[in-house]
Amino acid sequence: AQTVTQSQPEMSVQEAETVTLSCTYDTSESDYYLFWYKQPPSRQMILVIRQEAYKQQNATENRFSVNFQKAAKSFSLKISDSQLGDAAMYFCAYRSGNSGGSNYKLTFGKGTLLTVNP
Amino acid sequence: NAGVTQTPKFRILKIGQSMTLQCTQDMNHNYMYWYRQDPGMGLKLIYYSVGAGITDKGEVPNGYNVSRSTTEDFPLRLELAAPSQTSVYFCASSYSVTYTFGSGTRLTVV
Q1: Do A47 and B44 touch (CB under 8 A)?
Q2: Which of A73, A78, B34, B56, by CA, is between 20 and 30 Å from B8?
Q3: CA-closest candidate to residue A22, choices A2, A32, A33, A36
């Protein structure tokens, strides 16, 4: 079974600074997808970024980028120019690249609570 | 386009009571899921469904039941509520690698 580990229960960053959230995963599969979700106090789950394992290029979405190290099974999220609105719980998640059944489920890490200080 | 709608948003149950958490999606997604979120534990899969009439257990199914009579609806049933079922519950649906989550139900069992 796949597992996702987020080793930082809490992180803080000054507004306008850069912060990196860590995520490692364990899998025997070669094809899979990795996600970062943001959960603000409203509880809504918001997709931040998605990475396909077969793509070597790191995904980027505006101020958010990932450092995907497939051999090390590491998938960290970098937030640049942090804003107060970035304060939230962040979850790393894994999905198998195989087809059908339980392969489409998301497996989540425990989350990292990010505080942004003004 | 409403996405995934969960009701109720909040509920307090007494030990031993039963209730159904409702989940409806209007995107014609075949795959639907129920997760529970406990503080510091992330989201854990309770049940999932690959289409109408087909459901299967996830990681933490004990104490819950589901049904999927239509593509749109995927209700979660708690038969005998226990304090351990105090949690936030999320319903989600997916198509390919796009996942849509409901806004969650905060359930407290006292």
Answers
A1: no
A2: B56
A3: A36
pLDDT tens sequence across B54-101: 999 999 999 999 999 999 999 999 989 999 999 999 999 999 999 999
Contacts of A97 in chain B (CB under 8 A): none
Nearest CB to A102; choose among B42, B56, B92: B56
Residue A100 sits at the chain B interface (C-beta within 8 Å): yes
Give the model confidence (pLDDT) of A13-65 as tens digits.
999 999 999 999 999 999 999 999 999 999 999 999 999 999 888 999 999 99
| Alpha-carbon gap, residue A109 to A105, rounded angstroms | 13
Mutation for testing the A interface, residue in B43, B46, B95 having most A CBs under 10 Å: B43
Give the SS3 label for residue B83: helix
B84 sits in the region (left: phi over 0; alpha: psi -120 to 50; else beta) called alpha
What pLDDT band is residue B1 in, cutting at 50, 70 and 90?
Answer: low
